[in-house]
Amino acid sequence: MNFTSDVKKELIARSLAKKRTAEEAVAAKKAALSAFIRTSGELGFYEGLPNFFITTETERVAEFFTSLFYDVFGFELSISAHKNKLSGRDKLLLTCPAGECKRVLKELGLLRDKGDGFRAWIPSSLVRSDESKAAYIRAAFLGSGSCILPGEASATGYHLEFVFTDDGIADEFCGL
Questions:
Q1: 40-59 pLDDT, tens per residue?
Q2: Neighbour tally for 57: CB within 10 Å
Q3: Which of 77, 90, 95, 119 has its CB surrounded by the most CB atoms within 10 Å?
């Protein structure tokens, strides 16, 4: 295991947030799901309807987010094995039932209100509380984060990285 894997394992073990009420718990879970789709997902339209899928390399991360989907939406994402054509690495592909994608994307603030495109910003309604902001940051790390803890004999410094496909989202993320 590497340091990034250890951190991800601990984040999952500690869950998302200290939940005060059921409403705050759901808000934190929605923020986390939105961040995870934003960092590990592909958004698009299939036969004119909004759709998404998510890829991850870690079974533990896939199981964690699949259970969050069940908690919030009442269904689990399906998980299947997939080999990345470019890197040759094994990945897990998480897919949403086709009839649920639009509802999920709207509730997670990823789909524009009219349903004609995807939002290019982090919805402020998802990150109102400090707990939801923390859940968003944790899930973004679980989705695309990495970190390096320098060894005693190493000349490298500490390194923390999050990967976003859109610079506007990355700028907003820094504001969290």
A1: 999 999 888 899 999 998 89
A2: 14
A3: 77
